Amino acid sequence: MEQTTSYKLLSKIDSPKDLRQLPVESLPEVCKELREMIIDELSRNPGHFGSSLGVIELTVALHYIYNTPYDRIVWDVGHQAYGHKILTGRRDRFCTNRKLNGLCPFPSPAESEYDTFTCGHASNSISAALGMAVAADKKGEADRHVVAVIGDGSMSGGLAFEGLNNASSIPNNLLIILNDNNMAIDRSVGGMKQYLLNLQTSEGYNRLRYIVSQKLHKIGILNDERRKSLLRFNNSLKSVLAQQQNIFEGMNIRYFGPVNGHDVCALAKVLKEIKDMKGPKLLHVHTVKGKGYKPAEEEATIWHAPGMFNKETGERIVKDTTGMPPLFQEVFGNTLLELAEQNEKIIGITPAMPTGCAMNILMKAMPDRAFDVGIAEGHAVTFSGGMAKEGLLPFCNIYSSFMQRAYDNIIHDVAIQKLNVVLCLDRAGLVGEDGPTHHGVFDMAYLRPIPNLTIASPYDEHELRRLMYTAQLPDQGPFVIRYPRGRGTQVDWKCPLEAIPIGKGRKLKEGADLAVITIGPIGNNAAKAIAEAEGQTGKSIAHYDLRFLKPLDKEMLHEIGKKFRFIVTVEDGVLKGGMGSAILEFMSDNGYTPVVKRLGIPDQFIQHGPAEALQAICGIDKTTIYHTLTHILNS
Q1: 161 belongs to a structural domain
Q2: In which domain, by residue range, is 365 found?
Q3: At which positions is thiamine diphosphate bound (predicted)?
Q4: Which residues are CB-neighbours of 402 under 8 A, at least 6 positions away?
């Protein structure tokens, strides 16, 4: 990448080993160049912006002090890892980030040995890093250090607390770094507080502390139980002196901080001093999202992933969408508000995605009727179940790939009790540049076996509105609506709200020679392919919109089974256990023997790239559907 020639220090860093050859006084300049490179590149090649800028100094300090990749750094989540990628041998390929066949959008062990663990979903770093730390101990690798870097938002996830609880109860030397850019914890100020920080991190203090504890343990005064009691007393004394308390020390995890996350030299000093301390530790680091780029500092939400922008002026380059269909998310948000105005029982719930899923529309208009519960998908579903049990009607909006984390909650806390919860699965199907951790392709297969669920997917924006209206009618029970990221097809999207009969599909087009069954917006690709195939072959193709995966429209499927010898199913979900499987099961159970060709997501994780390109790779784009249809009709 030619831009690196303008970076005096960064252009010579091909690995963290090169970084560690520099004097510590050079680290601020490395941070400056690294920040400039990320700003420059992301202004042209969009990605996650603010989070990565916020941890530049922390990233540099970590790779400077720790012997990576032998020492392990586990990121949580990968939004903040662009600087890490650039410092670990991927500087010249960073221009391919998030592009088809380019660098992965998040750290991936398949891409680099420096990427220690998959981290597209939040809150897993502590558990994974603890596993690595314990493994290092079991393998006799006493010199291997393990660090988990977790954002304050990720700390709201239940898995993070499960990891913390276990870290406090088994022997390990894990370091947890809490990257705090929004927590309600005051900065450490005053002489006594700074003295305590210096004391806790000084090598002399901790050497003496270790020697004394070893001697007390040797003569039988300090056993494991007394050691924990002494640690609790020590933590209580620190809380009194520092005039602050935290849950970490209550869990017997040594706490250091808070420290300035943008003073790279001070960070390196602190990391060096606590590096070899025994036992679990937590370093609390204050950072600012978008640090070093004023527009991003001032509007963190917008600059999380701002798209292309003018780096000189900070002006975002927004495409003119005049005359274009709206995003499905916009239709959802506006329709939810419209329904909430009519039905006082409706409540909106989202786990930390109000802007992305457009729940912010309801939040702004009716702040007492919408809840952002933080990154806690399982809680979001069970919280919804509790509300539904008491007569409210929650619309719980969670991205499809994140709903995977709430599977037991759906079964145990909603489906068994037949509670009236509307589970809105945003980002269903192939999502594009965020890649395999975010593709919402498993939901139909993993939800279909669950009793009491209604599962539907709208063909377009009008159908989305009608399904939302239907779902909030009395006594519908658990109702799943899945829809994709991006724009629909209807510019005039605001149709009248009316009910759809549960379990009834639609015949979109008559035909005699072949039947195509689709579910959801992927049916639009099929409709275009059908028109071209009929023109090429001179034969007629019927098109059915299944609409409901559960319950199936048995009347419609009997009609298809009796009439057609050839059936093609198209879905934007996995083939194993998905809609095509449901059709095969129905045909077999009812004695029909058509030739069924299923098109959908194959049995592999799909890479990142433009959604259209990924559809072609999976064979659900218009061209592949067309070739499938013409091959069958001409054979």
Answers
A1: yes
A2: 328-482
A3: 79, 120-122, 153-154, 181, 293, 377
A4: 121, 351, 377
